[in-house]
Amino acid sequence: MAAVATAWSPLRSSSKEVYCGDLEGAPARLGRAQSAYGALQGGILERRRSWGDAKASPRSKEDTSKPASTEKCRTAPNASFENGINARPPVPSVDERPFDSSAISLSLPPPPDQNKRAGRNSGKHVRMPAAPYDSTARRSSCPVLAIPPTIFHSSRNFAPTDEEDRISEDDEEYDNNRGVVTPADDELLQKAKAAEQQPVVWPERNDEEFERGRALLKTLLCDALSFDADDMAHLVLQIFEECGIPENVGITTSKLQRFIIGVRDRMLDNPYHNWTHIFDVTQTTYCLACKCGLMDRLSSMQRFALITSALCHDLEHPGVNNLFLIRSRSSLVALYNDTSILEKHHSFRAFELMLNSNIDLLSGFSPEEYADFRAMVMSIILATDMARHGEYMAKLNAYTDPAIAEEDRRIGGQRVDLAFGMEIMIKCADTSNVLKPFNVAKKWAVRVTDEFFLQGDLERANGMEVTPTCDRQVQERVALQKGFYDFVIGPYYSKVAALLPELASLLDQIKVNREMWNSYDDKMLMDELGSSYLARLPGIGTDGPLKLSVATWNVAAVNNNPFEYWITHQSGEYAKLMNDVQRFVDNPGGRDFVVSEVLTDEMFAELKHDMSKHGFPGLDELERRWVEDYRDRCAISGFLKDKAIGSKRLVSMPDRITNTINSDGRIIYRPSVISGFEGEMGHIPVWWQKWREYTFRTDVHTLDRLSPGAYKVQAVCKMIEPIRHAKYPAITMEEEAISIPLQVLALAIFDCVLVRMLQIIAPRTWQPLKHSLCDAFNKNKSQQVINILAKSYDDADIIFIQEAAASFVDHAKQGLGSKYMVLRPYVLDGYRNQNSMILARKDKFIEGSRADLTEQVGRLAGGRWTAPGDLCAIAIKGVDGSRYLLASFHGDTNGLATIPVLKALNEAFTKSYPDHIVIFGLDANTHKQNSVNCQGIADFQQKFSEMGFASCWGPSPGVHTWTTRNARTYLQPQLQKAVGISDAARKGEVNLKDWIIFYGNQMQAVDSARDNTGNREFAESMVFPTLKSFRRITPLSLACLSVMRTTTTLSARPLGDVRG
Predict the structure, then answer these.
(1) 52 domain residue, yes or no
(2) Which residue intervals of 926-1017 are DSSP H helices?
(3) Is the separation of the CB atoms in 781 and 805 below 8 Å?
(4) 942 and 838 in one domain?
């Protein structure tokens, strides 16, 4: 359910975002992975030397004689220029240091399918201007980042405790979605391919702004800050086209559009490292490479690598530097071996995006081309690590030694390779703010120092050593700029100009800018720039109580069985089918049949043979149990209704693992009555072969939970895990020894029985009815949620979301991005697809002021109580000057994790963020009765009240204030929990689970409401979901919260305040 509070503010923001399909990763292409990775395992060093140092082939010489716009062949990326390369200078080089590339190269999906071709015609959407930026926004929290082997991957890299397993495995809403798949079934594969091909949402072009930008692309007068987000996307595409990428590399414009928007949507709203910075570096890289003549010397593949590297060099930058990650013990540090952490991560994310099945940017590359291109991009991005600046200065000193002949000092000459030239270009572009006119350079100076100071605030608030350059208490913005010019920029560009005389004029602008800084101090700088930014944010400093409209909603993205819950359905066919199923199960009578009639001895022999091929143990014992026990049972009364099978989890456990496997845009379903499978199931022999094909011969490519960053390939049946007697005492030690094959057998019997039962009850109607339910409940789940929010809750200021699929982020940006920021943890969970997120209204909260506290709060809770995706905790600044700590959470089924997480949030507030206003929207999974194994409503109310919290439901919510009202049917694997249709409203699950919680001395609830219709109305007696309007199993909860203090008393602290 969801909770909502109504609030208002006079502020409006013009910021909007753009969306590009459902971007969730790349499919597994295992056949080509072995060959490509074989090339990469030799090490990035050898690969880099092969494309940067090898002598030019005749083909590469031919290419260099042709202009980029007319070149028609795709030159191998190992082409050098002119006479190739001799020995490199005897200077220290990163190439000569030990370098572990496995953290990147071996954690990526396999290379793309060469035979897969791209392209959809581009669509259009409303023009979206760039977001305003508050130069005074400061963070006051510590985002300790989790392991991200993929953005949709759990960060857990340890064996779960028994308690964790009990919580996760008892959760009836557990998501079954697992890894990327390569299904052998052609029908499934074709459906998956069809589903993933979504047209790109490409923005309309403002011709006037586009022409203005295009005229400036090859100049340093191009001010990225003067263009909106759509303009920048079009100009990046123009750069690719001017480099000849579409025609010469064989990448369609549609793919490039998807890729560009994918990068844009993945950039966070940091003050400096954001989409504008990405465009600025990309344009400047192109400008400088053209200006010095490097672009003419590069092959098509090298040009593509250079521009792609610039576009992705800071992909998903968190707004803190490598030193912060090390000091905060981020798990990224361990993943990337302590060096160039962010740069390796940006490279990883870049290839994850390029291999995304909805983008498929590299599908035309051979394995060798892919390996060469990958090595180039990795090396170029690694060059942006400022920790390696000394190495590049040493190389420049050696290359510009007067003893070396001038012709040998040039890029592409005898001694200086093209690889080094590309690395120099991106290093120049990444520090190019100093090359721009001063009125542009000073804007970037404010942004970069803002981000520095935000990091310092995070460090101080969390008891970390404050990085000297990030300490706003002792540093001045202008002094930092002067030092940067004097000690970094001046020496560096002097050497670049010596190596590349065509760039010598850059020194003139650097000298002008440095001289201009002498006439500035911080007050003058902020008077010119800071006040103008604040002028875009009306409402700051106004008096009077602030009201916020808040909603919370568990959107339940993980329910995959279309028949699991009784629904409010207008169709007589649905009511008849479900009634007939209930009567059949309650009183099968003479219609009951023996298990061996549907799972015959011949079918069991096939099952045993399949399991034998996979090395399953105990098959002789399994056969004995089949013969002596299962084969002669009555299918309904002796198997489906056997409570022991339920308590042993012999069906429910393998069902939750194999029902639906979803990752990377690929979704497959077990051929079953209770999955989203849409194939024909009317003839058991045909269906049985599909079931075997899925279970035993469909390979699934998954991220290994115990080895972060590593993939493993296994059949679906190999994903099934043992059931332990210690955890489920109902299962005997003997059964535990064969629990995997026993689960496979039980699941096979269960699926066979359901197919036969529905053939008996409704042979002609059950499959069409199932398809209609799948269309209504299982397809376009995220879009259904977006539609309700856009229609009925567009006035909400904060919307807490729980159990959303990872893809919900992109859907929300497309459908709600004009009004809301989508706040989510840095790492999303695509393994279970149960993610908590927050939608924050742009006219109430300042973009660029967010800080991710998710892992920090999770650690305070002890770690065991939260799985990846359960919690989202964000610190953000309001336009009224107040600071907010917003949190969204989904607890375990029994609610046992709720109090530990609430205590952790309270501890974070008390110790680190006492000047923040805390608002917590959660699915607490509280129940009417309290017990050792279940969190009760009254006990929960008492415990959070003792911490000073209050809730939207008042001081004593009654048990009749429910936010969950649903009942399980007879078509689901835990029959003991089934409720008859006549008792669905009376005996189903009716509990108050959804809450909006806040400190009683900070806010008060002016009003509260529930909504189970999607129209801000509540039908007290209605069981949901409903087929017609409300297709979720939980409603929304709403509250209007009023801040009890005026905005002046909550105004921002001075710059020197320790909490930023």
Answers:
(1) yes
(2) 937-946, 984-987
(3) yes
(4) yes
Instruction: Please tell me whether 313 is known to bind a ligand.
Output: yes
Q: Would you say 620 is a known binding-site residue?
A: no
Question: How many Å apart are CA 313 and CA 315, to the nearest integer?
Answer: 6
Enumerate the β-bridge partners of residue 4: 1038
Looking at residue 704, its pLDDT comes to 54
pLDDT digits (tens, 9 = 90+) for 420-441: 999 999 999 999 999 999 999 9
Tell whether residue 234 is among the known ligand binding residues.
no
Crossing angle, helix 300-312 and helix 275-291, to 10 degrees? 150
Q: What percent of the chain has pLDDT over 70?
A: 70
Phi-psi region of 725 (alpha: psi -120 to 50; beta: other; left: phi over 0): alpha
Backbone CA torsion sign across 758, 759, 762, 764: positive
**Pair (373, 238) in one structural domain:** yes
More confident residue, 864 or 877: 877
734 plus 820 within the same structural domain? no
In terms of domains, do 744 and 807 share one?
Answer: no
Q: Is 275 annotated as a binding residue?
A: yes
Count the domains in the chain.
3
User: In the numeric block, which tokens belong to residue 364?
Assistant: 């035309």
pLDDT of residue 97 exceeding 70, the answer is no
Alpha helices in 243-293 (DSSP H): 245-249, 253-266, 275-291
Torsion sign (Cα): 274, 276, 281, 282: positive
Asked whether residue 481 is marked as a ligand-binding residue, the answer is yes
Q: Rounded CA gap, 346 and 348, in Å?
A: 5
Q: What is the mean pLDDT of residues 817-840?
A: 81
Q: What is the sign of the dihedral through the CA atoms of 445, 446, 450 and 453?
A: positive
Q: Over the range 883-918, which residues count as b (16 or more CB within 10 Å of their CB) and which as e? A: bbbbbbbbbbbbbbbbbbbbbbbbebbeebbeebbb
Q: Is 910 annotated as a binding residue?
A: no
What pTM was estimated for this model as a whole?
Answer: 0.55
| Same domain as 696, residue 829 | no
CATH number at residue 555: 3.60.10.10
| Identity of the residue numbered 878 | G
Q: What's the domain range around 730?
A: 594-761
Q: What pLDDT band is residue 968 in, cutting at 50, 70 and 90?
A: confident
Are residues 805 and 755 both part of a single domain? no
How much is the pLDDT for 983?
A: 65
614 is in an annotated binding site: no
751, 821: one domain: no
| The token pair that represents 1029 in the structure block | 């309007």
Q: Find out whether 314 is annotated in a ligand binding site.
A: yes
To the query of whether residue 273 is one of the catalytic residues in this protein, the response is yes
Query: Which tens digit of pLDDT belongs to each residue from 740-770?
Result: 999 999 999 999 999 999 999 999 999 998 8
What is the widest separation between alpha-carbon atoms in the chain?
A: 101
DSSP classification of residue 716: G
Question: Is 854 found in the same domain as 730?
Answer: no
Q: Which residues touch 306 (CB under 8 Å, ≥6 apart)?
A: 285, 289, 298, 376, 380, 422, 425, 426
Rounded to an integer, what distance in angstroms lies between the CA atom of residue 350 and that of residue 313? Answer: 8
The residue from 125, 153, 234, 273 that is catalytic is 273
pLDDT of residue 665: 52
